[in-house]
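Quick one - first record:
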Amino acid sequence: MGLRERKKEQTRQRLAETAHRLFIERGFDGVTVAEIAREAEVAEATLFNYFPTKEALFFSGLEAFGARLVEAVRDRSAGEPALAAFRAFVLGTGGRLDRIAEGDLATLDQMRTTARVIAASAALRGREQQVHAGIAAALAGALTAEHEGAADHDRGAAEHAAGGDLPVDPVPRAVANALLGVHTALVDYSRHRLLADDRPAEIAADVRAYGERAFALLEHGLGVTYPARR
């Protein structure tokens, strides 16, 4: 990055961290955009240059996670199926649940508070669904691009036979939604466990066990649809 890009990224990070701290302290609805801008020492207009809504501020981390997830699938090694790359990223170690398993009480408290804030806000739950839909669409786009050469050839032959345009192949979106469905189900499960104070040190291991079972169910069908890259 150049100096200008680094400063912009620092401002974006400061806004996200300030907003998250205030949301945790006072709840999502108890914080205004003007207060976030003032705490971060930027103009309100500057804040909106980085984040179009307050909900976008809250879920900036989720959007960054989604971008890294799509990148992990798109740039996976030759010979690695898309499902395997997705599973490795989602079930990888070193995340916040692992820190809780190691006894990090600060992370446990933060995750519980975040889960309560989301549960208490219909606006946040709606925004989260939008972000997940965007991640699924980006993943579907990556899978489509990966196979577009063969797809274009098949589509051209089919269109010629049918005498007109055919609709876009829905299979990549179905695959992406299925994969994201596992991730969102695991997130919902972990939040439920956190809010229930249910053996927090065991959540990470249980999430991985359920995740492996879910991905195994998908793999039987999806492993043929999106095989290893050549």
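second record:
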Amino acid sequence: MYPKQHLIMSQKVLLTSKEVNIILHRLACQLIEKHLDFSDTILIGIQPRGTFLAERLKDFLEKEYAIPKIALGYLDITFFRDDFRRTNKPLEANKTQIDFIVENKKVVFIDDVLYTGRSIRSALTAIQSFGRPSEIELLVLIDRRFSRHLPIQPDYRGRQVDAINDEKVNVCWKEQDGEDAVYLINK
């Protein structure tokens, strides 16, 4: 048996930069079909990694589809998670930035990967601090099937991935990681 530092990890490209771009356009078009002018719709990026996807979609909608002034916020769910006290490492909370009322608005939660559903459950609890939305939808870039702990499904999905529990989906964003890509990492 090898020590942990000698374990070999392999990675497979699930989405290239070009494929990510195509999916972002498709997701933007699906949002337009449902929300038209976005006058009653708010996009909420779930911290930390959903914010990159949310910003990119807002940019697409405003610049490429000429939809003015889309409301975008960021929601930190750290202290709303059901497992936040079960870890020995210190928690690193992100900043919640919601500068508007969500009361009676349509909210679209945006996250990079839907895995167990626990982050979304936490977001549903956290958003209540800002009012009662009329509707909440979920948009994810990657939907990992077969791994749900809760009955949560996306309304909009970029790609569905069948990954087993030892595999990790790693979404890279140009803004933070230097490239747009999605990898399946086998530990």
